[in-house]
Amino acid sequence: MSLPNLDLILHFGDIPYGARHKAALPRAFVNRCIRHALAHDAEMTVRIVDAEEGQALNSSYRKKNYATNVLTFDYAQAPMVMADLVLCAPVVAAEAKEQGKSLQAHYAHLLIHGALHAQGYDHETSDKDAIEMETLEMLIMAELGLPCPY
Questions:
Q1: Residue 139 has what pLDDT?
Q2: Contact 5/41 with Cβ under 8 angstroms?
Q3: Is 38 exposed, middle or buried (0-12, 13-18, 19+ CB in 10 A)?
Q4: How many CB atoms lie within 10 A of CB 36?
Q5: How far is it, in rounded angstroms, from Cα 98 to Cα 46?
Q6: What is the pLDDT of residue 78?
Q7: Closest CA to 120 of 87, 78, 88
Q8: Sheet of 42-49, strand order
Q9: With a threshold of 0.85, does the pTM exceed it?
Q10: 26 CB contacts (<8 Å, ≥6 apart)?
Q11: DSSP 8-state class, residue 122
């Protein structure tokens, strides 16, 4: 099976426990997770941020005044996917701990989740859409040899 091509920029902001997050997100791992979630070639930037930047972006773009785990900014869906994914390191770490998951497995799920959003999938539009997106996430995680995120 040939996977779509991905032109990836991976950037880490000034985050608490930065070495831990960088160790969980080697470039090849991030590339692999996203490519498995793509239907088309893509150009994506993945930025790992602190809670302050995550909250500012979520407040500015979604009018929600808290830091969330992943934000997706999609600019094009076909023939090439173009998007930025912003993951908030402290939120991801807290969720992983709370859910009893490894940090890397939780990041994988959120990278896949964000990549699907970048292609038009939306779990907030209907129960049917949520089930479709969650099913894809589970299938992709299994393809990668990672545990079910739910």
A1: 98
A2: yes
A3: buried
A4: 19
A5: 24
A6: 86
A7: 78
A8: 6-12, 42-49, 81-88, 70-76
A9: yes
A10: none
A11: -
Which alpha helices (DSSP H) does 14-149 contain, by range?
18-24, 27-37, 51-62, 89-99, 103-118, 127-143
Residue 84 burial (CB count, 10 A): 19
Can you tell me the distance from the alpha carbon of 73 to that of 82, in angstroms, rounded to the nearest whole number?
9
> Token pair for residue 81?
């996917």
**Token couple for 144:** 């990668």
What angle separates helix 103-118 from helix 27-37, to the nearest 10 degrees? 40
Both tokens of 47, joined, read 């930025």
Would you say how long the chain is, in residues? 150
Burial annotation 92-126 (CB, 10 A radius, 16+ → b, else e): bbebbeeeebebbbbbbbbbbbbbbbbbebebeee
Taking 70 as the pLDDT cut, the residues of the chain under it are 1
Q: Is the separation of the CB atoms in 35 and 71 below 8 Å?
A: no
Cα separation, 66 vs 52, in Å, equals 9
Looking up tokens 């785990």 gives 69
